[in-house]
Predict the structure of Class II glutamine amidotransferase.
Amino acid sequence: MCRWLAYTGEPIRPSALILDTQHSVVAMSLNSPLGAETVNGDGFGLGWYPEDAAGSPHPAVFRSIEPAWNDQNLREISRAVLSPLFFTHVRAAAGPPIQQTNCHPFRHENWLFMHNGAISQFGLIKRELTFAVDPALYTGIQGTTDTEVLFHLALTLGLMDDPVAAVGAAIRRVEEAGHAAGIPFPMQGTLAVSDGETLWAFRYSSQGRSRTLFHSADVPALRTMYPEAERLELFGDHAQVVVSEPLNDLPGVFLEVPESTVAVLDPTGYHHRPFLDA
């Protein structure tokens, strides 16, 4: 469907991961070995929290329907800004039209949200799910994707208070509606959510066969493993990356997030929690 990357840690220029890695996100937009589609050229997005936004983070978002590999503005912006937490996403449209409002990530106040995957046969249950969104949040839905509806459904169900519980409740609502409509496996995907301080990365599907998801190992441990890897000096001790597929081929650098799991990343490091595994 799509490919995405999220970073949290010491401020860096997003280009270090979006453009300059062996298997960068821009490279994935042209050739995604682990993706459902090889090419992800139906637009992209970059959302970032400014370096000086501590205490009251409000993310900036740049989205375009251009292929990521062909957009000079992405190169300019990703090399110019510094950010301690950013999202980037390259899209392979699975039904909703190619338009800027359908490009990820999506934003509400200080929250960012993006998704790789799909709500199966979304058109059959779109009306029910959309009408379940709080009327006060409904006007925030600008595009036509299942992801944006899922985001606003999670906001309705308490995302700003308990992200894990709210995303779980939103997915269960999708599954209930899907099963009632005769859809055997309604939910598929990996999701990223952040409030500007913590990053939550979910891997879940109704069928138990989710899209791939990985996160990086601790940077101090990687420096011990690869003492001659000069590139690691670009990153601070608290740097963490979550990505649809590894950014390089070095063993041990990227760890797979298990099925039905949420990875929680914050300044203390990362830990995994079971997610809807029942």
In short: DSSP finds eight helices and 13 strands in the chain. The first strand starts at residue 2 and ends at 12. The helical segments are 15-18, 25-30, 72-80, 122-131, 135-138, 146-156, 163-180, 219-225.
